[in-house]
Amino acid sequence: MAKACACHILVKTAAEAEKLKQLLAKGASFHDLAKKHSLCPSGKKGGDLGEFKPGQMVRAFDDVVFKKAVLEVHGPIKTQFGYHLIKTLYRRSERRT
């Protein structure tokens, strides 16, 4: 089974997410923006969600983390929680021995 590690910034509106994405494109720190703007408790840790498996997050979130390019900022992604900017830090497959 695959595992991934990701961080995200959760905000209320797509417009706010777009503004933050523009700041990231200009070199702003994902960690710092998450601490300042994210509505998720993970914001205190710079948006770090740790490692998780497919199905542990909502589908729209999983689709980004397990299918899109690693180390790029994706979004805004809408879920029932709000709008996310998501950065997958790594993805790996577990091997059974």
Automatic annotation (TrEMBL):
EC annotation from Swiss-Prot or TrEMBL: 5.2.1.8
UniProt KW Metal-binding keyword: no
PpiC domain boundaries: 1-90
UniProt-recorded Gene Ontology molecular function terms: peptidyl-prolyl cis-trans isomerase activity
Reactions it catalyzes: [protein]-peptidylproline (omega=180) = [protein]-peptidylproline (omega=0)
Keywords, sorted A to Z: Isomerase, Rotamase
InterPro entries: PPIase_dom_sf, PPIase_PpiC, PpiC/parvulin_rotamase
Official protein name in the record: peptidylprolyl isomerase
Organism, as annotated: Rheinheimera soli
